Automatic annotation (TrEMBL):
It comes from the Bacteria. The keyword Signal does not apply. Keywords: Hydrolase. GO terms for molecular function: hydrolase activity. SUPFAM superfamilies: alpha/beta-Hydrolases. Gene3D superfamilies: alpha/beta hydrolase. This is Serine hydrolase family protein. It holds the Pfam family Ser_hydrolase. It comes from Staphylococcus gallinarum.
Length: 184
């Protein structure tokens, strides 16, 4: 079954940014999209977010599945996938403004991030992208490059001074849509 899961990040919701736009565009390719609700995103609780991914993704991943994760949703998703006993090789994994280490500018997330355990060799995807803005004030591109290095990926860099947020003009995201549609 063709499924797309969108995992939002810190201080976001299922209605934020470009999420619904991507969902609408992917329906033209017969993809059903679940923009996963992660509770209390202004004060994320690791156990609650972990449970939300389990509730929404358990037994639903296959070779047609695409996962798009943004910001704190990236490490949350990677942690979830690392916990699976036998992760199926999914179609695509798109990691936007991702990181796997604490961020100096957001120390309030340190406890959450320290609870995440990412095991790269357990994560399987036919296509995997690390995407970053060259001037992201929230997740510095160096943090995304560290993530890329761990997964032996090239960092796909977009010329943008921001964090791919709606208030920066990102209520659509044509570059991401293009990358996704190239994989299907």
């Amino acid at each position: 079954m063709k499924q797309l899961f969108i995992i939002h990040g810190y201080q976001a919701s299922t209605n934020s940014h470009w999420f619904q736009w991507i969902a609408d565009k992917m329906s033209k390719y017969d993809y059903t999209t679940n923009i996963v609700y992660l509770p209390n995103s202004k004060y994320p609780d690791f156990k609650q977010w972990e449970q939300a991914l389990q509730d929404n993704l358990n037994n639903k991943l296959d070779d047609q599945t695409i996962i798009v994760a943004h910001s704190l949703g990236v490490i949350t998703t990677l942690n979830y996938l690392s916990t699976l006993n036998q992760m199926p090789k999914i179609k695509g994994l798109f990691l936007l403004s991702g990181f796997i280490n604490s961020l100096d500018n957001i120390p309030e997330l340190d406890n959450y991030i320290q609870q995440c355990q990412v095991i790269p060799e357990k994560i399987q995807a036919q296509h995997m992208y690390s995407i970053a803005a060259n001037e992201d004030p929230v997740v510095n591109i160096r943090a995304s490059e560290q993530l890329s290095k761990v997964f032996k990926l090239h960092t796909y860099t977009i010329n943008h001074k921001g964090h791919f947020l709606e208030n920066e003009g990102y209520n659509t995201f044509s570059e991401l849509l293009s990358l996704i549609t190239q994989t299907i």
